[in-house]
């Protein structure tokens, strides 16, 4: 197997971009003192990002995303475990896909 130089350059470029984004955030927050409001807003970002990934699939319709989302929601309410909820939702969606 031979590695194409352009592929290697793309991999290195994306690694540098990823490092710059992560490192830049850490650097920025070392330079400023976030207010309590900014800290509260930042605490909600992971949840809003997750919703932004799920909603388009639900809007597009179909049984698979709806069953997966329902299984995720039910498992999260029952167990309060994010890992188990994601696992249950993924398994339910795969199950529907396998039956279809």
Would you mind describing this structure in some detail?
By secondary structure, the protein is mostly helical. The chain folds into 2 domains: 1-32; 45-100, no CATH class. It is 87% helix and 0% strand. It is built from 4 helices and no strands. The protein has helices at 5-31, 36-60, 63-79, 82-99. Helix 3 packs antiparallel against helix 4. The longest helix is centred in the N-terminal third of the chain and has 27 residues, at 5-31. It is flat and about 45 Å long. The protein starts with a helix and ends with a helix. The mean pLDDT is 90.
| SSE topology string | HHHH
Mean pLDDT: 90
**Oligomer designation:** single chain
Calculate the terminal CA-CA distance, rounded to whole Å. Answer: 37 Å
How can the largest sheet be summarized? none
- By secondary-structure content and strand pairing, the structural class works out as mainly alpha
- The total strand number stands at 0
User: How many helical elements?
Assistant: 4
Portion of residues in helices?
over 70%
Q: So what's the overall shape?
A: flat
Approximately what portion of the residues adopt beta-strand conformation? under 5%
Radius of gyration, taken over Cα atoms and rounded to an integer in Å: 20 Å
Number of structural units classed as domains? 2
Protein name: AzlD domain-containing protein
InterPro entries: Brnchd-chn_aa_trnsp_AzlD
Keywords: Membrane, Transmembrane, Transmembrane helix
Pfam families: AzlD
């Amino acid at each position: 197997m031979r590695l194409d130089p352009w592929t290697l350059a793309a991999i290195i470029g994306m690694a540098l971009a990823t490092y710059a984004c992560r490192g830049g955030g850490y650097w920025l927050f070392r330079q400023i003192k976030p207010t309590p409001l900014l800290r509260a807003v930042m605490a909600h970002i992971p949840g809003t990002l997750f919703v932004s990934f799920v909603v388009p699939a639900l809007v597009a319709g179909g049984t698979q995303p709806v069953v997966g989302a329902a299984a995720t929601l039910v498992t999260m309410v029952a167990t309060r475990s994010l890992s188990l909820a994601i696992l249950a939702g993924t398994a339910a969606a795969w199950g529907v896909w396998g039956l279809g």
